[in-house]
Amino acid sequence: MFKEKKRQQQEDITKTNIDILISLIPMLLVAFAVYEITPVLVILFSIAASEIADVIFSFILQKNKETLKDFSGIAIGALTGFVLAPFTPLYVAAFAGAMATLFGKVIYGGTNKKIFNPVVLGKLFVLTFFPSVLAQNSSAWTNSNIFRIPSEEVTGLTSFIVINKGIIGELSIIAMVLGAIYLIFRSRITWHIPVSFFITIFFGYYIASNNNVDVVTTLGEIIFMGIFVLTDNFTTPLHGFGKIFFGFLAGVSTIVFWFLGIQNEAIIYSVLILNIFTRPINTIFKPNVFGDEKVSFAEIIQGISFAIIIILLVFAISYLHKFGFIPYIVYIYIVYGIWRLYNNR
């Protein structure tokens, strides 16, 4: 029975990763149409490095024979490539893909055991070791000499079809919507996290604008993160109310970071904080024996307690960020990851 259940889970992971890759095709085509081969190479280098890290550390060292069958290294690498700038140096893209898989999946022994979202970790590693690459004024974001559509034409409804600046995944809102529709049709994601996240964030935009807070996070990046990153199966809650709670608090955390002066890393920090609480959230907001998802008063109190702790962590992380301590936390995590690799070999 256990072997059968494990085999079924492995098949589900494989099918999910294949569907994720299919859902990314519209965005890949747009990226190629906008900036020709460069962003495609960024994604391919991220995928290649991710898969190489998976082969070396999972397949060879950990003897995990299933890791190459579930396409997880390819999916992680692809998604990591899509959250980078279109003209990210290829060695940086490769670094991001390798770090995402190695420290997001491999150190925990597999896709179904990971704690933190690998894609978010991959981008955090880039921001830590190559901060200038994804800086706002970096040349990695756009190239007017290659962009095939005149900038004056990218206005109004046209901006939903294609834009000329942002992460690779956000160059077309229409392409993202097509990918989302496919994933929902295939039952790979549900509406709970994206909708609760988007509604919260849009209220946050309104509040920020009325308080003269300059938000640099783009609508496209928020949509991409909400659909393709926050919905990761094993680092987000399993059940409806838990998903809504997760999406809502990810949005609230992001807004608080904005007000505290943190922009580029706001969503990244929020997701990583929420990842820590995924398993406790699953414990609180789980259906009863009859499948009923009604939330009791005790569960509401527990949820409020978690929300308070999460917001306190947001303030703590913001102070660590302002005083430049986040890189040291990343270094400590790397040491922890190496220790886990050594013990799991």
From TrEMBL:
Segments crossing the lipid bilayer: 16-35, 41-61, 68-85, 115-134, 154-184, 191-209, 215-234, 297-319, 325-342
Keywords in alphabetical order: Flavoprotein, FMN, Membrane, Phosphoprotein, Translocase, Transmembrane, Transmembrane helix, Transport
One Pfam family matching this protein: NQR2_RnfD_RnfE
Single GO biological process annotation from the record: transmembrane transport
UniProt key word Transmembrane: yes
Cellular component terms (Gene Ontology): plasma membrane
Superkingdom of the organism of origin: Bacteria
UniProt cross-references to InterPro entries, sorted A to Z: NqrB/RnfD (IPR004338)
Protein's name according to its UniProt entry: RnfABCDGE type electron transport complex subunit D
Organism whose genome encodes this protein: Leptotrichia alba
Lineage: Bacteria, Fusobacteriati, Fusobacteriota, Fusobacteriia, Fusobacteriales
